[in-house]
């Protein structure tokens, strides 16, 4: 868990524990960023097998994490075996990950966040840093509870209530669910229509209506945006709506509107994922000097071997990857990124990359240890297991704010790493 100073875990009346803001949090701020402690694999439908997987991971947790897991809420408390008890806690608290490998996971702090249909936090699994994040959807005042939405799609009050009661055993009392009768019905009508429009727009995009009836399609999105705005400020569905509008107008050659809709979509996504939305360019940042081939390389973000004397593009993530994007020692993973050619091509030329990270802090007791921040803003430790334990470096070269560069860095699993633990304790090794 890093930089979690925006909140404290407190008792929240009628909800058990919850996260409460301990300072004002500005819209778009990353409030929480946390690694999983227990995961279930994607595509395993067999509950008994999942129960065993979860139980094995719980048993392998270090005592304080295990205690934290066991203190979590369990809405299935009447199960009579330890395995079923763990499974009950897992089901009550697990958050979706859905990165192709992991289906859902337990996070010690993120799983304490309560639900609100008009939540002020946006949850997301960030696959770049292999962590769950929550960003502020609007300004959150000190003392306010931080909330996320447990439901996948917008639905009316009765359907929301039923799903939350069936799946999470509580009755929601958020602002939206507590609206006076007529306002509540009005809100439901809006949500039903937003849902209906979603279907019309996605079918239209899939079946070519963006070319055959673009104005009708634009009307649908216009209505959806208006309904989102009436429903509440900064709805997290807005960026997708602007993106849909951008596709409709661009497909019809209307680049001026396309640019504005695209900018609005990006601005909304930036709020939803805050500082995680890193790699971006402004519309006028198109390189004008490049010849055709080089322009295409830029456009498709292809890896192009550096010519001698050519300055390196520090924003190129295949040359300057983050920690989570590094290849594994001896592994064939991500070879497509890390070789000039395809993985099984015997003539593919190996290429080089450089892991860069800022020194945030350091100490020199038994050995030199550093706390680093990489290009994805992921924090990680660096230990010097060298002969002189880091004393090879001159003291004036070790400063906060300086950059560490590790050429051809790789993940390396040490013998004492926990087996099969996600995002495991691998360290950057290199020459
Ligand atoms: C993932 S946990 C959230 C943390 C939990 N409150 C705790 O004490 O650990 C989910 C459970 O919290 C409770 N909960 C979440 N949101 C709630 C809400 N809006 N009102 C009442 N209870 C809520 C429900 O019991 C739900 O099954």
From TrEMBL:
Domain of life: Eukaryota
InterPro entries referenced in this protein's UniProt entry, alphabetically: SET_dom, SET_dom_sf, SET_domain_protein
PROSITE patterns named in the record: SET
Residues of the SET domain: 4-151
Signal peptide: none
Matches recorded under Pfam families: SET
Name by which UniProt lists this protein: SET domain-containing protein
Natural source organism: Xylaria arbuscula
């Amino acid at each position: 868990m890093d930089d979690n100073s925006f909140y404290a875990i407190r008792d929240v009346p009628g909800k058990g524990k919850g996260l409460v803001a301990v300072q004002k949090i500005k819209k778009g701020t990353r409030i929480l960023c946390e690694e999983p402690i227990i995961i279930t694999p994607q595509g395993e439908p067999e509950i008994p097998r999942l129960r065993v997987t979860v139980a094995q991971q719980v048993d392998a947790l270090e005592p304080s994490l295990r205690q934290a897991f066991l203190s979590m809420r369990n809405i299935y408390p009447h199960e009579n075996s330890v395995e079923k008890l763990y499974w009950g806690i897992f089901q009550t608290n697990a958050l979706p990950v859905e990165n192709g490998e992991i289906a859902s996971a337990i996070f010690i702090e993120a799983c304490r966040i309560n639900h609100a249909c008009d939540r002020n936090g946006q949850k997301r699994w960030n696959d770049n840093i292999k962590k769950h994040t929550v960003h502020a959807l609007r300004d959150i005042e000190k003392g306010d509870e931080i909330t996320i939405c447990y439901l996948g799609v917008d639905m009316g009050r009765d359907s929301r209530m039923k799903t939350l009661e069936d799946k999470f055993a509580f009755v929601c009392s958020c602002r939206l669910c507590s609206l006076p009768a007529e306002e509540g019905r009005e809100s439901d009508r809006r949500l039903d229509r937003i849902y209906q429009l979603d279907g019309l727009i996605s079918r239209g995009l899939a079946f070519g209506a963006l070319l055959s009836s673009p104005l009708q399609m634009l009307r649908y999105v216009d209505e959806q945006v208006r309904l989102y705005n009436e429903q509440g400020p900064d709805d997290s569905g807005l960026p997708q709506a602007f993106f849909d509008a951008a596709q409709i107008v661009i497909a019809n050659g209307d680049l001026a509107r396309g640019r504005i809709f695209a900018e609005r979509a990006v601005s909304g996504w930036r709020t939803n994922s805050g500082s995680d939305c890193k790699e971006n360019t402004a519309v006028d940042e198109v390189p004008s000097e490049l010849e055709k081939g080089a322009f295409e390389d830029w456009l498709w973000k292809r890896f192009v071997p550096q010519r001698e004397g050519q300055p390196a593009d520090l924003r190129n993530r295949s040359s300057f990857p983050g920690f989570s994007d590094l290849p594994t020692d001896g592994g064939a993973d991500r070879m497509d990124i890390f070789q000039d050619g395809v993985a099984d091509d015997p003539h593919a030329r190996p290429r080089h990359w450089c892991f860069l990270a800022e020194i945030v802090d350091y100490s020199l007791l038994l050995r030199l240890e550093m706390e680093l921040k990489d290009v994805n803003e992921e924090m990680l430790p660096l230990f010097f297991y060298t002969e002189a334990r880091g004393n090879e470096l001159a003291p004036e070269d070790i400063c906060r704010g300086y950059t560490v560069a590790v050429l051809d860095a790789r993940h390396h699993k040490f013998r004492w790493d926990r087996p099969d633990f996600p995002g495991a304790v691998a360290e950057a090794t290199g020459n």
